[in-house]
Amino acid sequence: MGLFGSKDWNVIGIIFEKPDLYRVNGNRGKGGDATTIRDNVKNHPRTIYWAVFNQKGAFLEGGPGKGATSIPAVAVTRLVREIPMNPTVRQILEQLEKGELDKASKALVWAGYPTKSEID
Predict the structure, then answer these.
(1) Does the pTM of the predicted model rise above 0.85?
(2) End-to-end CA distance of the chain, in Å?
(3) Over 80: is that where the pLDDT of 30 sits?
(4) CA 53, CA 32: separation in Å to the nearest integer?
């Protein structure tokens, strides 16, 4: 592939830890590794949502993962809508874009965690 066709992606996975705690895992990958990372994140059993961003922070693709059934559907819908601009996700993306790290992780700070009544 030429210079403009090679992949240099930041792959974000929102991982279910417990009902009131999700983790943002980020990985930077290039070329074939980028595709492998994306596929691994998509297929992880606790991935609630996965997303791929370019090095300028633009959303390329994403969707609910296998772990999306761990939380109420309304929370998944809200997460899908809010993740591209979530401050925690943006912090992880910024770290990956700088190229100093190829992996980063942080607890998701989010106002949309389901309430106890929504979980029961």
Answers:
(1) yes
(2) 50
(3) yes
(4) 15
